[in-house]
Amino acid sequence: MRVKLSYTVDEKDVLAEAAKMLNLAADDMKQGIALFNDVQVELRGEKDEETSIPNVGKTLEMIEEFRHALLNVDTRLQEVADIIQGYADYCRNPDPGPPPPSPGVSVSENMMADVFGSD
Questions:
Q1: 14-73, pLDDT tens digit by residue?
Q2: Dihedral (CA of 11, 16, 20, 25) sign
């Protein structure tokens, strides 16, 4: 099961942090490239010089592992893209004001005074 994490960094560190997060996919990317090459070698029968017969079962397992590595890279790329887009949106409008109230939730001025006190 995958869970979403959230943490804060200084505004000036957002893009550097995004780069660090992207680097977390480096091992999956390397594995994907290796599998991409190995699957082709296996399919051409170059892995086993004696028989030159591709191992179809092994090839299918390698393809599934390759797909899993690609999914991990794609997931990380989407997370980083979301961070970069959010940062770009923030840079265009750094003070958007308070967020709108959630649907179905009504906050009256009296309720705010009860919670925060009145001045």
A1: 999 999 999 999 999 999 999 999 999 999 988 766 767 889 999 999 999 999 999 999
A2: positive
- Tokens representing residue 44 in the block: 């051409």
Whole-number pLDDT of residue 104? 65
Residue 67 lies in a domain: yes
Which structural domain, as residue segments, surrounds residue 85?
12-95
Of 22, 27, 13, which is closest to residue 80 (Cα–Cα)?
22
Q: Are 29 and 73 in contact (CB under 8 A)?
A: yes
Asked if the structure places residue 111 within a domain, the reply is: no
Q: Specify if 38 maps to a domain.
A: yes
The DSSP secondary structure of 91-115, one letter per residue, reads: HH-S---SPPPPTT----HHHHHHH
Does 82 reside within a domain? yes
pLDDT at 29: 97
- Structurally, the chain folds into a number of domains equal to 1
